[in-house]
Design a protein that fits this description.
The chain is α+β, with helices and mostly antiparallel strands. Helices cover 15% and strands 31% of the residues. Strands 1, 9, 11, 12 and 13 form a five-stranded mixed β-sheet that branches. Strands 2, 3, 4 and 10 form a four-stranded mixed β-sheet that branches. Strands 5-15 form a two-stranded antiparallel ribbon. The longest helix has 20 residues, at 4-23. It is globular and about 35 Å long.
């Protein structure tokens, strides 16, 4: 007979393998039929964990079990039109990332300050062209992109309408609805 502890470990391992396989069911093109965002393919080969989707906090669940992320263009004092999430928090792009093909470089400790915008199902837009949205694979998850640029939230923004990350390290900028970095100071 197999000891209970070993049996439990095997069951947990099998369940984890199943869930990870379900999360990474991409066909390699960078697109996912469940997501309503334009495909963008690139997957840098690193294995650094990122903040979990529940920490990311910019999506809401609908009654049918799908999760919807929203991006909205909003005018902000000193910044002009920038893109915000469901909670009105500013979204940023990182100059060290690449837009074509989409490639993220913020990893490890960076993701504790700059939270990748992870999407699960659909994306709703207001003032942002849906054709400019896409995803890039990130450790089995999908990070939202705008004009190819991977999107992030800044932990220093604690309320809607803040843009405390604008110009940080001369590399982080609020992203405009067209995918450009906001040139205005925050």
């Amino acid at each position: 007979m197999i000891p209970r502890r070993i049996l439990l470990s095997l069951v947990v391992g099998l369940a984890a393998s199943f869930l990870l396989g379900a999360c990474d069911s991409s066909n390699g093109t960078g697109s996912d039929s469940a997501a309503s965002v334009a495909p963008v393919a690139s997957d840098p080969a690193i294995s650094t964990p990122v903040a979990s989707p529940s920490k990311a906090g910019a999506s809401s669940s609908s009654g049918d079990g799908t999760t919807t992320t929203a991006v909205t263009a909003k005018a902000m004092n000193g910044l002009g039109d920038v893109v915000t999430d469901n909670n009105g928090k500013t979204l940023y792009r990182f100059d060290k990332d690449e837009p074509s093909p989409s490639k993220w470089t913020c990893k490890g400790a960076c993701t504790m300050t700059w939270i990748p915008v992870i999407v699960q199902d659909s994306v709703q837009t207001s003032g942002v062209a849906k054709s400019l949205l896409g995803t890039v694979h990130r450790n089995g998850l999908k990070q939202l992109t705008l004009a190819g640029w991977p999107l992030y939230r800044y932990t220093g923004d604690t309320a809607a309408g803040e843009a405390n990350g604008q110009g940080k390290d001369n590399a982080w900028y609020a992203i405009t609805p067209s995918g450009q970095k906001s040139a205005a100071s925050g």
